[in-house]
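Hello forum,

I keep getting stuck at the same step: I have a sequence, I want structure tokens, and every attempt I make locally crashes halfway through. Rather than fight my setup again tonight, could one of you with a working pipeline run this one for me? It's a single chain of 298 residues.
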Amino acid sequence: MTPQGDVGSRPPGLRFDVLTLFPEIFQGYLTQSLLKQALDGGLVSINLWNIRDWAAGKHHSVDDRPFGGGPGMVIMPGPVYDAVEAIQADAAEPGQLVMLTPAGQRLNQALVQELAGQRRLLLLCGRYEGFDERIRLGLKPREVSIGDFVCNGGEVPAMVVIDTVIRYVPGVLGDPESVAEESHSEEGRLEYPQYTRPRVFRGMSVPDVLLGGNHEAIARWRREQSEKRSRPDQANQDSAVTQKGGVDREEQASDAGGGGFRPQGQGRQAGDAAVPDRRLGGGPPADSGRDEGASPGL
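Reply #2:
Ran it on my machine without issues. Output:
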């Protein structure tokens, strides 16, 4: 199989492989700001893979109705296993598989740094009512959540992971000290206030200490302001959420996106049927217009 997007031609410092049913969602995101510069400079590489390319049958179906009944559709294990195993074999290093799920570990700066230490990350994005549980049990991914809220799928959480992790790739930021001084560089620590021109705006003035050129006094003021802004209980709150795993495991079956994806009591969204099949390999169109109650094509 061929990725739908292979961005970054030189040997990268970090490779991302995004497994999704909607690779088109990423197209605009990959062309903006620091990420685009990192891709153009060969510091990062991102491959987009359509899970549907590994689906069997005339309609290339990737989902089916849940055993035991209930609303919506569940992503079947077969296409996901085949996709993950084939993509891992696409390079000498199989990489770390990450499942974006609200049942995962809460993403914080410490976890971001840990993920940035990998050479390759495979980001598995869910949709509909989530993944068949055997995907988690058999593939044993690192489970990550971006928070306790609802997304329509795992694609936006995957972008959050990419956006935060690349900041630790050497050369991505113009000033390496930016990572050291920004919020959450220390657990629970928030960055000091920033000011720029004009010196006075609508009656609000820049603090005099920032204008005097005394770097020792500026550093002391910034440290004091950072301490005032910081939340001393934040570390304890993050630890409690991590131990809980974001949400109870019983709720995972109906959640597909990292950091909270839960469809509102339905299967595919109405807009899904209008998404064209743009797989590079061609083939029959995706079975994305199927009525939820209809028998899925196998």
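The CA atoms of residues 133 and 253 lie 7 Å apart. If your local run keeps crashing, start a new thread with the error log.
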